[in-house]
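Form P-L/3: holo structure prediction, ligand magnesium ion.
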Amino acid sequence: SARVIAIVNQKGGVGKTTTAVNLGAAIAELGLRVLLIDLDPQRNATSTLGKGSPSGGIYQALLDDVPASDLIIATSAGVDLLPATAELAGAEVELVPQMAREYRLRRLLEPLLPSYDFILIDCPPSLGLLTVNALTAAKEVLVPVQCEYLSLEGLSQLTQTLELVRRNLNPDLLLRGLLLTMFDGRTNLSQQVSTEVREHFPQTFATVIPRSVRISEAPSFGKTILAYASSSTGARAYRALAGELVGKSETN
Amino acid sequence: SARVIAIVNQKGGVGKTTTAVNLGAAIAELGLRVLLIDLDPQRNATSTLGKGSPSGGIYQALLDDVPASDLIIATSAGVDLLPATAELAGAEVELVPQMAREYRLRRLLEPLLPSYDFILIDCPPSLGLLTVNALTAAKEVLVPVQCEYLSLEGLSQLTQTLELVRRNLNPDLLLRGLLLTMFDGRTNLSQQVSTEVREHFPQTFATVIPRSVRISEAPSFGKTILAYASSSTGARAYRALAGELVGKSETN
Ligand SMILES: Nc1ncnc2c1ncn2[C@@H]1O[C@H](COP(=O)(O)OP(=O)(O)OP(=O)(O)O)[C@@H](O)[C@H]1O
Ligand SMILES: Nc1ncnc2c1ncn2[C@@H]1O[C@H](COP(=O)(O)OP(=O)(O)OP(=O)(O)O)[C@@H](O)[C@H]1O
Ligand SMILES: [Mg+2]
Ligand SMILES: [Mg+2]
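OUTPUT (holo model):
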């Protein structure tokens, strides 16, 4: 049954979408079956995979009870995608009065679990109901952390939210790891932040994603870094991350 | 009466907080009276100005009807601050059932308008009720745009939201300008994105904020870039922006 991993950080621009798309593609390259869910109203994962205007998406599954399997599309990156559409922008408010509003994603994913090895959920930069849905549906959490000072600030708020979700909605939720992103070896700041993060969070991945302009160019071609620049430092880092993640089994 | 400017972009990590704090300080350096409002539950503007644990904040004014003037604190950066506290994280959901929920910020700011020349509002990376409150209270909008491909994606969603707010809540709302941030002259991507933005948005500021590690170091010292590295390219760029903004009067 699938490992369900929520990619979460309320701090904006830390590499959540970039990680969801490129890690997903790197895991698929290993021959594993991967589903990527775009739970962000910005729809960046959907457009990065070149699927700008899907006819239906996660909004229809969350609020109109359309089966998720009817909405999933294949992509050239080797991952399946449950895309986001424009209506998702209204979902945070529309979910508020719904019954079992935090469990909707978890319930709609259950029939899909046998069909995939990994399900990755790209979350918006907030700790609202969409992200809470992801944290309730997931068994593991991966937190990208940009190697910048302001990124450190939000980590305690995030771990408090994880604790609240564990206590009220999903007791088995495991913080699988923090992923250092946009690491620039030339600056002291990157070194300081990465030292600080590793001190406070022993479960920080050994793999570090370097700052690389090739990574930020790839989405403009509707490609992952693996397809756009296969031997670049960015592609190699995401392949290493896939290996490290797959190697850490669900139970430990 | 004060010019009220909302600093908005649902895309995360584009430089909203960095612009609110440093532009605010640069305007204050010109001898003008500036109030900065931290409307983001991440509280980055509050902590950047070294005010990590204020006793009260914007949440109390929005939801407990405490007068804003009782919550405003002075800072060493020369701007006044209406800080954010931890409770703000619940405000998006708590505002949903409130009467005139979109007008709450506008109403609480009215008595403050004569006391300031500029009021800057730092918004969270979303288009939810907190940002809608800022867009209803503001007369002008400043949109930071990171010189990256994924930042282009959200601009049409943002302009659609501005149009909705104009039609339903605030007919005078003016898109004052887009601000190109983290511009790295060495990459084609920055050049391409900046050309694209200027083509589609003629009201893009002439001033461009360069990518500069000094800018991202300053918050760890609780300082603005003006105080941390006064003759750096980043400090000069924010001073130029202040001059350009002050030069554009409210009516044109
Ligand atoms: N390792 C990297 N090197 C260089 N640029 C990167 C890297 N990772 C991501 N980027 C770029 O940084 C920007 C932010 O990344 P991304 O959009 O993935 O972050 P996010 O956390 O998903 O943002 P949001 O909070 O808006 O959802 C994007 O323009 C992306 O292309
Ligand atoms: N011109 C710049 N050069 C280098 N780094 C910058 C620049 N502007 C901002 N940064 C850094 O980039 C990161 C994102 O900036 P910032 O937090 O201001 O964006 P934001 O839009 O407010 O993010 P959020 O969406 O999370 O509120 C921060 O770590 C900041 O220090
Ligand atoms: Mg994203
Ligand atoms: Mg911010």
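COMMENT: The first helix of chain A runs from residue 16 to 29.
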